[in-house]
Amino acid sequence: MLERREVISMKFVLEVAVDEGAPAQDTVRELGRILRYWGGNLGHYAMEPGDGSPVYDSEYREVGQWRIVAS
């Protein structure tokens, strides 16, 4: 017999403030680093609405956040 599961619609939201004065190459490198880090770290979260965490740059300054929201 097939098990019925409730479908929960949600969004992954990533917000990162970038330094407008930084060279584009530095911005791309920093965003790539953030995406790689969180892409590998998401397995530690239940990935349910309400989950989230601050996002830090390579100098450990808080530059944004990611969160799971119901949609």
From TrEMBL:
It comes from the Bacteria. This is Uncharacterized protein. It comes from Streptomyces phaeofaciens.
